[in-house]
Structures are given as C-alpha cells and as structure tokens.
Amino acid sequence: MMWFTKENRVDNVAKLLAHSPDFMCRHMRCKGKKVDILFLSNLINHDHLQQNVLTFIQKQEDVSVEQLVRCLPIGAIRICETEKEVAAYIRDGWAGIYIEKEKRALAVNIAQQVERSLEKAETESLVLGPKMSFTESIDTNIRILRQNVTDENLVTEKVMIGARNQLEVRVVYIRDIADETNVQTIKQRLSELHLDEVTDSSVLAQLLDDHAYTIFPQYLLTELPDRLAYSLMKGRIGIFVDRSPTVIICPTTFFSFFETTEDIYLRWTMSTVLRAIRILGIFASIFLSPLYVAVITYHYEVIPSALLLTIGESRSRVPFPPVIEALFLEFMIELLREAGARLPTKVGQTMGIVGGIVLGQAAVDAGFTSNVLIIIVALSALGSFTAPSYEMGATIRILRFPIILLAALWGLVGIFIGVSLLLIHLLKLTSLGRPYLSPVYPFRFADIKYALIRLPQKFYSERPKTNRPQNSRRFSWREAMKRKDLDE
Fold first, then answer.
1. DSSP letters of 412-426?
2. How many CB atoms lie within 10 A of CB 481?
3. What is the pTM of this model?
C-alpha cells in the first residue's frame, strides 16, 4: 500500500490521470495546515466546489479527515487509502482532498451530471399506460424504479465490471419473490466477466447468454419502467448498466417478446385478440413468402383455378423463377427498412413510404416481379413489425430467407423441414437455465394465461411458475370478495 506524502501526492495522482490538461489542484492553508484539492475541471460542478468545499473548509476551526467526514455538506464522501483510489474517484467527477500530515485522503462527490431529460420511449410505443422511459444515468433509473416499486424487499446490488473502463451495474430484484438460484446465477456470470469494457446493456446481455450462437434473443431489453416493475413482481430479475437507457430482464421465454404492458391496461378480451394478432402476424411474416415460392414452384394444384389465372397473368412478364423474385423483393424491403432506420425520423418515414411505392410499382412495370408477390411481401413486412421487441422482429425477418431457400429446394416438404429444425432449436434453448418455450414446453397449464391469452384479473392470483418465485401468491380473490361483502 502506498501512503500519501507531501512530496509525491499531487504528482503521483497527476501521473495516474495521464497528466490530463483539465487536471487542477487548488492549494489552501487553513489554521496552519496545507490542504490540496484535486479535480478534473470538465467533470465537476464548480458551484458545489466553491460553496460546499472551498468556502466550508476555510471556515473550519479544525481541519482533519474525521472532521470533514462529519461536517462537509456533501452527501457522498469516501475515505481513500491509496492514490489509485483517489485517481479513480477523480475520473468520475469527484474531488480529492489531501490534508497535511494526514495519511488518508478524502473523495467528495461534486460531479456535474450530464443526462437527458425524461422522455417517451422510442422503441416501445404505448397508447395506454405511463409514457416515461429510462435514461442513460443509472442513478436516475434507480430513482424511477423506486417510484414504481415501493416494496421494502426491493434489492439493488451494485457490481463493477470492466478492467480498463469500469462500469457500474445494478442487479435488481424483490428478495422474497425472485428465485435465489436465478439471482446467484446472474451474480456468478457477472463475476466471471473479465474484459476491458462493456459499452451497453445490449452487449452485456449477449455476454450473459446461455447460448451465444443462436439467432434468438434470450434476455428482454426494455426502456419502460412499468414493464420492469411488472416483471419484478412476477419473480424476474432486472440488470441496469450505467450509461445505457435499456434494462435487461431475465429469465424470459419466447412468448415474453410478444407481450406488452398495454395488454395489462386493456380489457382482457381486447388484449387476447391483439396478442393473437401479433402471433399470427409473426407466423405470416415467416411463412407467407416461402409458401408462395413452394406453391408456385411445385404445387400449382393447391391454388384455386380463379386465383391461378390471376397469378399466371401477373407472372407472365417475369423472367425469373419464384425464388429469385421473392429474394429480390425481400432484400429490397430490408434495404428500405435499414435506410429508413438510419435517416432522420421525418426523412426516413417519407423515404420508406415513397421508396416502397415507387420501387414496387417500377419493379412490376419492369417485369422483375408480380403484383401478387408485392402484396405477400408487404404483408410479411407488416407481420414482422407487430413484434413489440425490436430484437425479436429482426430475428423473424432473418428467418424468412433460409425458409425461402428450403421452399425453393423441396417445396412444402422443405418448409416442414425448416419448421422442424426451428422447433428442435427452440426446444434446446434456455434463458438463465430456464426452458425457453415455457409454458408450452414443459407444459404448464396454469401459466398459459401469461403467455398466449389474457383472462380477467381474478385468474392472476398466482405468479407464473416458470420463474420459480419463492412467494407464488399474488392475492386471494375469494378473500378480497369477502372483505368487499363485509364492507358493504
């Protein structure tokens, strides 16, 4: 351990900070003692420095580490034993305070917080429910979470990851609900990460995956505080990453990516219909284009005669086989989507609409494709956009291409082969060690209402068994009804 001395303390800290040009040291004398205050001028709040540190120290009768810890009007104060500790705090916007003849130093938090204001979520839009989203500040995000979850058993455990660029991570869960095995698994995986840095929560989610080579996301990413609160109450775990506006939710299932918190706010009948539309849209997105290729290439007999005439006329000027035609249109749709996502919002929306109309009409007039396939590809694209999760939507769009190729090789048999391989793969996947296709496999009838359908609220007295909650009881509907009758 290197103790601080008068001769090397400022110089050594300056070396640890790579002699940054914004590194500054203020020298003071208070009651005969020399006091050095070190900081990076670009990171601190100068008003706090002047009012709560410099002016306050000058007024003290006795200046010592213990005295300043007791009296400084700053909430976050740390006692440091080594110069590396002081330098680390200074990099985070703190100020280091050295007092003559003292072997220890102080670090006080006077950081100037840089963050955007609370706004609506960009990736998850809702009609009903709270519109506020998380920000890039982990402290702000924890405050938002505590406003949404007032349970006294809410736990927020701090973990630091990254050897060179350290990042604060918070594991949040409700102590008497979340399964202890899930919590310990997450902590172990975080402790086993030995890397220089983690830039975002989406990167951390990939590092924590059970299966690194699958195309399917295994953890849910959300910007919505109410979705995190709802998940915690069901026994799941949240992971915040500093400087990231999204939070990781685990464990998750395949069906979790098609849920929205809006399903809770709407009446159960409407929620069931909307969820069914999403799931049907996903199936349409994956299989409409492959079915077109398979039927046109191998199975004309399944097409009604009236429709067959229309398709024949539409394809009469197309010189390419159906598989090339379908791949060309799918690739064009993906180009439009990617270009629209990278352009500014208003320009991207205009380009997507105008580009789709112009290119689609031009492709038909030029004989590159048929009108029927334009409609099918458009429906497939719309179906992929119904997925509330961006990651799952991208996965669905990518899955179309290999199934189109299988349909071109073996027709409907190829599609069945693709579906079989896809189901086998999904059956093997897990999320935090829990089955990915639960509650369908392993089948849990009681949890179907959390995955495929919505029921009236009185049927949700139990938490989903998929998450292995310690306390499975949410409420007793019969007891609530008895109390209501007594009140009346």
1. HHHHHHHHHHHHHHH
2. 11
3. 0.83
